[in-house]
Amino acid sequence: QVRNNLTGVLDGKDIEISDTESFSDDPCTSVKKLKGNDVRIILGQFNEEMAVKVFCCAYDEEMYGSKYQWIIPGWYENLWWEAWINSSQCLSKNLLAAMEGYIGVDFEPLSSKTNKTISGRTPQQYEKEYNARRGDGQSSKFHGYAYDGIWVIARTLQRAMNYLNSTNKHQKIEDFNYSNQKLGNIFLNAMNETRFFGVTGDVVFKNGERMGTIKFTQFQEQKEVKVGEYNAVDDTLVIINNSIRFQGVEPPKDKTIIQEELRKISLPLYSILSALTILGMIMASAFLFFNIKNRNQKLIKMSSPYMNNLIILGGMLSYASIFLFGLDGSFVSEKTFETLCTVRTWILTVGYTTAFGAMFAKTWRVHAIFKNVKMKKKIIKDQKLLGIVGGMLLIDLCILICWQVVDPLRRTVEKYNMEPDPAGRDISIRPILEHCENTHMTIWLGIVYAYKGLLMLFGCFLAWETRNVSIPALNDSKYIGMSVYNVGIMCIIGAAVSFLTRDQPNVQFCIVALVIIFCSTITLCLVFVPKLITLRTNPDAATQNRRFQFTQNQKKEDSKTSTSVTSVNQASTSRLEGLQSENHRLRMKITELDKDLEEVTMQLQDTPEKTTYIKQNHYQDLNDILSIRNFTDGKDGEKAILKNHLDQNPPAQWGSSDPSRTSKDAIEDINSPEHIQRRLSLQLPILHHAYLPSIGGVDASCASPCVSPSASPRHRHVPPSFRVMVSGL
């Protein structure tokens, strides 16, 4: 009944009762439930024996100390725990540790005031006289209330008699009986109006109940100390100065105070990564200036300066997204943060596609020119490459727009488990973290990752196909492969680590920013640093074709042979693979030719006695070998024809004798070995200068009496075809 009444009073005072537990024997189960419900202030109603068990359970559950406050009855006997400690399974020191600081509540047996009471004695004088009269008899703590109760009866009867006398009613108090309701009401009213100062304090009744003084004591260092009192009559609480000792720096909280704390990105970290990002953007701007300034240089012009500008633009957009990734709730409002979720996703996606799309478009043009054997002439201008990049960006925009319309990114708050306060306060910290998420986040990310992955695979394919194109100004396949490798590895590692560090915003932001900085910087440096170095050291080296070198002992001919291209610009076309095959066949033919020439030379070096003439069949075989018609120039039809002085003489004259000639002028015969040897010494160098440049064997720019500079392939915009006629030896 007392508990129910107390519950009603607390509810009326807006005090929440978290839990109510009852027990008859073992209180430990109830104590565990109180702790599970995060109850901090416990009102206990039990006797001394059960109090010992309760505090033992509180010690086991660590429900004592600075975070808890126990309030129990204060009418226990002095040193009440000593009588029941043996009946519990708790050590004495543990029990006293759990009891330390509890507050006992009891009525005040005697007033602490020094005023005289209705009897003319002070409460102290009354206590002294009471103890003297009772002697060694057992004392009751209610003796002061009994004494004041007698005075209440006396004053009530006196007030009732005065009331009866003043009303001239013919009733006396002697006429009272328990069935006389009128006289009973007179007594009740007289008692409620009774008020005086007694040995227990102010004696006042309200609704038939005594309004007394409540005493508060606290268990401090194994003894109870009075810390204050509450006067129910005046509704005043008096706390004795500095008497209450709390085990913490402040009174215990009525429950665990949960303080939400936003995990934000560190300002120094954001400043450092922003500085690195600014340096990257400065580097990209320097590359842009270099590309625009040297756009008319042959090296830069052949590498598509407009596509280079797009690569730089994509890198700068990727750099710019880092600034947005570092802005969280500590810098911007919730509404602005939600907007940034969309903006930074768009910027990073478009920047990636712009950079790698332009790089892959350049490589596709090289692939289209050099890998299509049937293609005779095809002009692939930068406008078409811009259209390819625009198509890639259009796919990006379609994905992003559908994402924004169907399932836009929203600001979500993720709450983590509570943590103790680092400062030691009696509060718990619940970390919260902001995220950019939507309902179907996994699906949308899968679509974006799949598209970007296919784009990278396409770039790898183009890089592999154009790996043997030997003009550095055109061929970026090696650098594209390195870029794709670095970007792919870093993106995989960055995405995995970023997902595992969702609850650590500083680590997550650091990883994302470093991955973007690394990928963008590596890509830009691989594309532009080689061009910058080449342009500063040897501008023509990047546009010169690599010449073929052939030996009889050469192994793995096809893999080591470089493509022979004399002059290529953006509008040129070439049948590269056909030329390679034909070139290989011609070089084999040349080898045979060199052997036969060497054999003829050796024969010519013999003495006249051994070799008086060259057989007719030797001449015919040599003439068949040297009569080569390989290529036809489709543009102007010009022919490079070399003829020696023997073209004007029929082959039949070789080795034959004229009957009109005599032996005396035989030494002057035009077909004599001496004349032949003299002519070959002049014709052999001319022969080599005539046919070797057409197949890349000797630099065609070499001075020759038989080959003019205008006929050299080096001085033509389109690689011409040649007809080489060597005859009449």
UniProtKB/TrEMBL annotation:
The lineage of its organism: Eukaryota, Metazoa, Chordata, Craniata, Vertebrata. It comes from Rhodinocichla rosea. Residues 269-551 form the G-protein coupled receptors family 3 profile domain. Residues 561-575 have a biased composition (Polar residues). It comes from the Eukaryota. The chain crosses the membrane at residues 267-290, 310-331, 343-364, 385-406, 443-464, 484-500, 506-529. GO terms for molecular function: G protein-coupled GABA receptor activity. This is Gamma-aminobutyric acid type B receptor subunit 2. InterPro entries: ANF_lig-bd_rcpt, GBR2_CC, GPCR3_GABA-B, GPCR_3_C, GPCR_3_CS, GPCR_3_GABA_rcpt_B2, Peripla_BP_I. GO terms for biological process: gamma-aminobutyric acid signaling pathway. The gene is Gabbr2. It holds the Pfam family 7tm_3. It is a multi-pass membrane protein. The keyword DNA-binding does not apply. The keyword Transmembrane helix applies. Residues 551-581 are annotated as: Disordered. Its main location: membrane. Keywords: Cell membrane, G-protein coupled receptor, Glycoprotein, Membrane, Receptor, Signal, Transducer, Transmembrane, Transmembrane helix.
